[in-house]
Design goal:
This protein has 379 residues and is mainly beta. It contains two helices and 29 strands. The chain is 10% helix and 39% strand.
């Protein structure tokens, strides 16, 4: 008979031990990930985090908010006054329970962050106190380390004092932070993390000249990948991009019918889009990536004005939960894809024509950040 080498028992034992160790490590890793997810997720109950004008002794009003997909990390900024240089950016890493001021980032107008909260973009005017109007610059700042350090991705002289006071400078980004959309007096996009920007001119069909931006852009909504983007402004103006902001398609004077399109929001995929018409309180919905819209509901006008004056609309990941805020305080919530709305009860919020509210929600739609400020008179 041929010679058979006996099995090496030590080798088999070593292999067995290695397999057991690997299985144990995988089990522990899975358990740890489940624990972290449980820690970072929210309860099924709805949570409203009210930033009612006071984050700490140095901030009195909130003009912009953005949160991570779980709601654990939140960024907020104070209202920009020409009489103060203490309009800081703030960060919370515990669902808005405590806040840290980022004092080297001031005069922030709007905020956008990635699902993890790690990458953050803000729009700001560099100095509203010490610099003459002609020397002020509009900046887009970026952080890739949860707001610890910042770099300038865009700057341009912005010498119109009226726009410095009134323009919200909306900004939106893809989940990777690669695709950036923002508007000042022009519409700009970036596909390389803000390294370069495309300046868009949008043709206007009624008189054959170009909209070279707008004085008061109202809102931008972007899908998770950044492929789909939707843009509205205070006129009856709506445009969309289906190619990562390389080109925008204009939809002038269509379903808006000379209405005030004040806010836009979309689902994570970009398939579901909502536009709020503040002239009549109509909510327009699209189920085909913003190509066509249907009027699905109406919210009563605010008793203080002839308009509903909505300024913010945010949705859950799937677009079924929708929140809309009014300039003058009320928040409306829908859990049936904007078919019906209920007004959320709020306390300590002024019900007057000098309050302005902002919203941000997590992917589930069960946590909502609500902030507001009251207008002050400029010197």
């Amino acid at each position: 008979l041929p010679y058979s080498k006996p099995c090496n028992m030590k080798f088999i034992i070593i292999i067995y031990i290695v397999i057991v160790c690997l299985c144990s490590c995988l089990t522990l890793t899975l358990a740890e990930n489940l624990r972290k997810n449980a820690d970072e997720s929210t309860d099924s109950e709805f949570k409203l985090i009210l930033l009612n004008g006071v984050l700490d002794s140095e901030i009195t009003d909130v003009n912009a908010v953005a949160m991570s997909s779980t709601g654990k990390i939140v960024y907020a900024s104070s209202y920009v006054y020409e009489t103060s240089d203490k309009a800081y950016l703030y960060k919370s890493a515990d669902y808005g329970k405590t806040w840290q001021a980022i004092t080297d980032v001031i005069n922030v107008y709007n905020i956008a962050t990635t699902p993890s909260g790690r990458i953050v973009y803000v729009t700001q005017v560099n100095d509203l106190v010490n610099l003459p109007v002609l020397e002020r610059k509009l900046l887009v700042l970026k952080s890739t380390d949860f707001g610890e350090t910042w770099s300038i991705t865009y700057e341009n002289f912005y010498n119109d004092p009226e726009l410095n006071k009134l323009n919200p400078f909306p900004i939106a980004i893809s989940s990777s932070g690669q695709h950036v959309y923002f508007s000042s007096s022009v519409l700009l996009t970036s596909n390389d993390y803000g390294e370069s920007y495309i300046h868009h001119q949008l043709p206007r069909s009624d008189d054959n000249y170009y909209y070279d931006g707008y004085a008061s852009p109202s809102g931008i909504a972007v899908s998770r990948t950044g492929r789909y983007a939707y843009y509205v402004n205070e006129h009856d103006f709506y445009a969309r991009s289906t190619n990562y902001g390389s080109k925008f398609e204009l939809f002038p004077r269509t379903f808006l019918q000379r209405s005030y399109a004040s806010a836009v929001g979309c689902s994570e995929s970009g398939k579901i889009v909502y536009i709020v018409d503040s002239s009549h309180g109509f909510i327009h919905k699209s189920n085909n990536f913003g190509y066509t819209f249907t009027k699905v509901s109406q919210i009563p006008t605010n008793p203080n004005t002839q308009y509903t004056s909505f300024n913010s609309i945010v949705t859950s990941k799937n677009g079924d939960i929708v929140y809309i805020s009014n300039y003058y305080g009320p928040i409306y919530k829908s859990t049936d894809s904007a078919s019906t709305f209920e007004e959320l009860p709020l306390t300590n919020v002024p019900d007057n024509d000098k309050a302005y509210s902002v919203l941000s929600t997590n992917y589930k739609g069960d946590t909502l950040i609500f902030g507001y400020f009251q207008y002050r008179e400029y010197n």
